[in-house]
Amino acid sequence: MAPTSTPKDSELRVTLRQWLERESVFRVLPLLPVQLLILSLLAVPFLLTIYISLLRWRITRGFWTAAPWGGVTNFVEALTDEDFLYAVLRTFVFAGFAVAFELLIGFGLALLTYREFRGRRVYLTVFLIPMMIIPVVVGYDFSMLLVDTGPLNSVLSVLTGQDVRIRWMSDYRTAQVAVVLADIWQWTPLTFLIFVSGLSALPPEPIKAARVMGATRGQVFRHVQLPLLKPVIVIAVVIRAMEALKIFDMPMLLTQGGPGNATETLSIFLWRNAWVFNKISYAAAASLLVLVLFSGVIFLSIWLLKRERAQLEEVRP
Amino acid sequence: MMRRLGIAGMIATLVLLAVGPARAADVVPGATVEERAVNGAKAYLKKLGVEKLDLTMMMVSLFAKAQPKYLDEWEKLTGIRIKTIEYGYTEIPAKIMADAVAKTGQYDIYNHQMYMLPDAVEAGVVIPLDDFAARGQPYFDDIPKTLRSEMYYKGKLYTFFTDGDQTVLALRKDLVELPQARAAFKAKFGREPGCPDTWKQWEELASFFNGKKGQNFYGITLEKDLYGAQEYRAREFGYRWWQGRFSSKNKLMFDRNMKPLIDGPEGIETTREMVSLTKYMPQDVFGWGTPQNYPFFAQGNSFSISTFPSIVGYANKAQGTVISGKILPCVVPGSVVKGKLVRRSVQPAGTNYMVSKYSKHPEAAYWFLQWFTGPEMGNRAVADPDGFWDPFRPSQGKDPKIAEKYGSKDFVTITLENARIAVPMIPLQGNREYFDALDVNLQEAFHGRIAPEEAMKRTARQWEKITDDIGRKRQIEAWKYVVESGAYLDAEGF
Fold it and tell me: Please, where are the H alpha helices in B103-208?
């Protein structure tokens, strides 16, 4: 017997078809499976992290399903844990110094090389090399360079005419400097690359116009190039700040977070608690607090970026 | 006879007669520990009905050169092939713990260091080996009591080892024997220079045997700066040496309720002694591990070093050494406690082998452990110039190949004495958290940022918190087993 359709069915089919043909629906529907997949990939671990942070789970206490409920204990402990709070502070100080120097040096180098000149490509290549080296290799190289009887102290001895014996990796203050130095050496090329691209892409007309009107090089730079570069600077700050706040490899390779806790950054703190002390729940709670903190930084950066773009749109003809 | 035994004795005799043969029948045949292991492995394969079997070992990368030849030999003997997956020793604890969560069954054997055992057991990732051992009859009787205790956790056998790794003190014999130096030292300290009995005497030696480049040092001109001492002061190292020194005060680190005893006079004195000796060390020592300490000593830069036993073989044979044949190995110094000299070494590492709970063939894995760490095979491994396994069984003192490896028979005798008095590093769950707290506070003291008293007070406070967090009751139970097993010999405080 052939299937029959009632008027009600055909009415429903028409409605469904009309609904599917609506642009707002059609635009979203094909992407929905992928969106759901991504959401589940992100949401499941995230929700699990929240749940685990509310337990009192150490790996040495069996599987997490058997761990006792801890409520907000881990969060309270983290917020009153000196080591955690110092790790937060230390990380922001590291990132602050490292990013500031990377921006300054990167910008300076970009100003020297953004115009065409003979051998420019060689300079560009050389300046970009550090960024392409694997961090482990950079860490190892720096640990060799910074040995107390190593090349850096030898060079400083020759330059100063004195026997310089700076304990780069074993003194509380200099170890922090050493970590920042290594980070600056490796990541200045990234800011350099961003600035070279930004400077090269600046529209020539406003610069030419300013020159025609008698502006000096300094005035052109201050009143024309720099304002136009603001979005690029913000991008460089955001990218480098986000990376620098996650710093792990350099302090780990150079000092293992020492001496004492002098170079223990947030990433090392979290790693140590999770995988050395097996305190998974505590590490989960601390990482969620870090997430909240970093989200604040990221939202601030995005807001800055948007504001700069808006201002730039206003001045553009 | 029957009357003397009484009814209870008769019953016991009957039970023994009944059970004894059955037990004896369970024991795998073989004249030696190794033979029984091979026969046990073959019998296991026969039971499975296969001729070959593959196992996997998570292995410390330091043994990448030495271990494979023994694995090949085992395969030829039994048909069991053991693949290795290598990691640095600092990475392995996290890998084992990850396996405890993921339960992959990828590994049959874990190779790491003795202090890893309590966490591995509590995480349920390794199995007790007592039942296998009852059939294989391994031989532990000649292993020093302190080291043997580390093979057990809460009374059960979990791990085998073939590496003493206890600390040793080495002096520069050529400098000690300088006639003018001997006379001057005796005039100053009232005794001949040589192996020190106490930590204080070592510091006296360090204060005497040091000088600047170009200086005339009791008849010889120093070609480079000479430092008085080397001992680990870097993060991840210093706390290990502290535990040996503290144990020589004959005090336990915890009492029976897990209250830390390290903030008492013994702990403060230990830290003070370590801080004080640091002034005779190169300033670089704060960042040095073994790869830096060994060559520095071998290149003739310092008078003395407290480190692993392999320093003697290294300083005698390494390329570029300038002190070959000029080393005076010593039993570690100690402390005078109640009029008695107490010397304690520590086992800062100690390569061990454990069987994974998730192994599909734990019995096959067990037989390898028994074979490789047995008295004969163990001696071969210790004698292996490619390996980092150090002596700990008395029989190893008579082995000419082991003496050849270290370049000195006297040294082997001395390191065996150090093995006899080598205590473990806190063999409790969460020990790396206890270590870290001690490590960080010691670092602060070594750098002069806080006083030794404060360092110990802070550490004790943190240890209390760690104990409470892990569970005081379960730590008390485990600590009781440790102390009663003789791990710390006759130390007081329980």
Answer: 117-122, 130-136, 145-149, 173-176, 179-189, 199-208
Q: Decide if A60 and B440 are in contact by the 8 Å CB cutoff.
A: no
Q: Are B366 and B355 in contact (CB under 8 A)?
A: yes
Find residue A101's DSSP bridge partners.
none
Residues B231, B274 contacting (CB under 8 angstroms): yes
A73 vs B: CB within 8 A? no
Interchain contact B443–A (C-beta under 8 A): yes
Residue length, chain B?
Answer: 494
Interface contact flag, A276 B93, Cβ < 8 Å: yes
pTM: 0.88
Chain B residues within an 8 Å CB radius of A149? 284
User: Does A315 have pLDDT greater than 70?
Assistant: no
CATH superfamily of A73-315: MetI-like (1.10.3720.10)
Flag whether residue A65 sits within 8 Å of chain B, measured between CB atoms: no
Q: Are B119 and B354 in contact (CB under 8 A)?
A: no
CB contact A165 to B (< 8 Å): yes
Q: Which of B483, B435, B423, B462 minimizes the C-alpha distance to B260?
A: B462
Tokens read off for B444: 């602060």
- Token pair, residue B164, equals 């003493």
Contact A276 B286 (CB under 8 A): no
* pLDDT reported for residue A62: 83
3-state SS assignment for residue B324? coil
A172 touches chain B (CB under 8 A): yes
Smallest CA–CA distance, residue B444 to chain A, in Å, is 6
User: How far apart, in whole angstroms, are the C-alpha atoms of residue B411 and residue A115?
Assistant: 69
Q: Which residues of B touch A147 (CB under 8 A)?
A: 284, 287, 292
Contact list, A259 vs chain B (CB under 8 Å): 234-235, 286-287, 443, 446-447
**Which one, of B322, B265, B272, B263, lies nearest residue B298 by Cα?**
B322
> Rounded to whole angstroms, what are the CA distances from B43 to A310, B56, B108, B348, B357?
79, 20, 19, 37, 21
Is residue B23 very low, low, confident or very high in pLDDT (cuts 50, 70, 90)? Answer: low
* B305-358 confidence digits (pLDDT tens): 999 999 998 999 899 999 999 999 999 999 999 999 999 999 999 999 999 999
Residue entry with tokens 């640091």: B278
Residues 6+ apart with CB under 8 A from A291: none
pLDDT beyond 90 at A21: no
- CB contacts < 8 A, A to B, total 85
Asked if residues B258 and B494 have their Cβ atoms less than 8 Å apart, the reply is no
Asked whether B93 and B435 are in contact (CB, 8 A), the reply is: no
Taking each continuous run of H as one helix and of E as one strand, the counts in chain A are 15, 0
Chain A residue with the nearest C-alpha to that of B433? A277
Q: How far apart are CA B291 and CA B268, in angstroms?
A: 30
Task: Note the pLDDT of residue B93.
Answer: 95
Q: Pick the closest to residue B147 from B491, B487, B492, B386 (CA basis).
A: B487
Res B8: pLDDT? 52
Measured in angstroms, the CA of B436 and the nearest CA of chain A are apart by 9
The answer to whether the Cβ–Cβ distance between B283 and A58 falls below 8 Å is no
Give the SS3 label for residue B223.
Answer: coil
Q: Do A165 and B283 touch (CB under 8 A)?
A: yes
Domains of chain B (ranges; CATH) run: 31-164+350-423 (3.40.190.10), 168-346 (3.40.190.10)
Judge whether B230 and B304 are in contact, CB under 8 Å. yes
Q: Who has greater pLDDT, B362 or B2? A: B362
Closest CA–CA distance from residue B285 to any residue of chain A (Å): 8
User: What DSSP designation does B338 have?
Assistant: T
- Read off the pLDDT of each residue in A93-104 and give the average, rounded to a whole number: 96
> Do residue B287 and residue A257 have CB atoms under 8 angstroms apart?
no
How would you write B199-216 as a 3-class SS string?
HHHHHHHHHHCCECCCCE
